[in-house]
Specification:
Elements: E1 6-9, E2 15-20, E3 26-33, H1 47-54, H2 65-70, E4 75-80, E5 85-92, H3 96-107, H4 114-133, H5 140-148, H6 163-167, H7 171-181, E6 187-193, H8 197-208, E7 232-238, E8 244-250, H9 259-270, H10 276-284, E9 288-295, E10 303-310, H11 316-332, H12 337-354, H13 358-370, H14 380-385, H15 389-399, E11 406-412
Parallel strand pairs: 2-6, 7-11
Antiparallel strand pairs: 1-2, 3-5, 3-6, 4-5, 8-10, 8-11, 9-10
Helix pairs in contact: 1-4, 3-8, 9-15, 10-11, 11-15
Length: 416
């Protein structure tokens, strides 16, 4: 499957990608802003995520974003992570101008009145409490990221370092943040669906062409994370149902050649019930009740994370030792041809399935364009397929050392 894309740049600097798919009556309109939590000031974290909410709170011209879109048969949502903020709409292609009107309108500036700001700050603060403070293991990333990252702004999660940062966010600094990052020169508009590139370009110019380019933000290089030479450990006692272990390592950037090796490596370890960790530590030895591994896939140096909940009556030290033995085995014992081919087949199947719809294609194309070239999306399967067993072992041996590991332990409150 080749995902064909036409590329344009409007006079105001807005990048436009168009993918034509005649098999659907829908269109996806995706706007990626090149701003995430890594762009925040350390004493004002959570700003990008707060703006994700503010951008749905209406503008001077459109008081109710959702209702205006729903009347045209559209649906919308958004997400923020460490690197980007992404807004997306699916809508019947016959009503695509409604989506473009709404997105261009809020690019000009959301409602930052006292009322809107108060409402959205309360919503985000409550999300912080419910997802990160008031549920078991919810504060994992609040504690793990500062262990893994000492210099890079990945050291705080997207929600922010502390709920007080959200509560004290003021108009002046939020307006400055918006002006710096939410403008055409810092955005990528992707349209995917039953629409010809020439029409998409004409409509993009109609709705976005008059927006000021904005002052391009000064983008000094973010501080690189130094190589960890000593292990980091933190042990916490929490009201959780089971003891748990989280082990993390800093890995390469999303665009680096080694990324797919790390991806395959975690699939070997945790590719469902046939993955090494589950087969050995859950099914056979029964030291863990569940265990998993993944890479965060961030644009700068991301993180490889292995985590598991420990079986009842198994000491946390015993479980960690068993986990380290499996990591050591991967460092010395390459995956078999069957093991490797299984994860490659699974990746290819998952890739094609996840990119079947116009929305996922629009979002993925935007991200690949941000990384340098949207057409690189068509190389994903071949890049993953080129990973060899030796590459996995060599990478594991180089990176997955105890000296470079950050380990977070959760100990449940004892009833004794």
């Amino acid at each position: 499957m080749i995902i064909n894309t036409s590329k344009y740049t409007l006079d105001n600097g807005l990048k436009l990608l168009v993918h034509t798919d005649t098999s659907t009556p829908l269109a996806a309109v995706n706007i990626l802003y090149n701003v995430g939590s890594k762009n925040e000031h350390p004493d004002m974290t959570g700003s990008a995520h707060l703006f994700e909410h503010l951008m749905f709170g209406g503008t001077g011209a459109v008081r109710d974003f959702d209702r205006s879109l729903q009347l045209a048969g559209g649906e919308s949502n958004a997400f923020t992570n460490t690197d980007i903020t992404n807004y997306y709409i699916t809508i019947p292609v016959s009503n695509i101008e409604t989506a473009l009107w709404l997105e261009s309108d809020r690019m000009k500036g959301p409602d930052l009145s006292d009322k809107s700001l108060t409402v959205q700050k309360k919503v985000v603060a409550e999300e912080f409490r419910q997802r990160y403070l008031n549920q078991p293991y919810g504060d994992v990333m609040l504690n793990l990221r500062p262990l893994v990252y000492k210099v890079h702004p990945y050291r705080w999660p997207t929600i922010g370092i502390d709920i007080s940062h959200i509560e004290k966010a003021d108009h002046e600094r939020l307006r400055e943040f918006f002006t710096t990052y939410y403008h055409p020169e810092n955005a990528i508009l992707t349209i995917a669906g039953n629409i010809k590139p020439e029409k998409a370009l004409r409509l993009a110019n109609k709705w976005f062409g008059s927006i000021s380019p904005g002052a391009s933000p000064a983008k000094p290089g973010l501080p690189g994370e130094p190589v960890k030479k000593e292990p980091e450990r933190l042990s916490l006692t929490r009201d959780v149902p089971a003891d748990a272990i989280y082990k993390a390592w800093v890995i390469c950037k999303r665009s680096d050649y080694e990324f797919h090796t790390f991806d395959a490596l975690t699939d070997i370890l945790a590719g469902g019930e046939s993955g090494r960790l589950y087969a050995s530590l859950v099914r056979d030895k029964r030291v863990f009740s569940e265990i998993n591994a993944f890479i965060t896939g961030e644009l700068d140096n991301g993180m490889l994370l292995i985590y598991g909940r420990i079986s009842d009556k198994v000491a946390i030290e015993t479980a960690e030792e068993a986990l380290e033995e499996e990591i050591e085995r991967l460092r010395k014992e390459p995956p078999s041809p069957r093991e490797l081919q299984k994860v490659k087949n699974r990746f290819e199947s998952s890739f094609h399935l996840s990119h079947a719809g116009v929305l996922h294609k629009a979002t993925a194309l935007s991200l690949f364009e941000l990384m340098g070239d949207a057409m690189k999306i068509n190389e994903e399967v071949s890049s993953y397929s080129s990973v060899t067993a030796e590459m996995i072992t060599e990478t594991a041996d180089k990176i997955l050392t105890e000296e470079s590991a950050s380990t977070l332990l959760y100990r449940k409150i004892s009833n004794d």
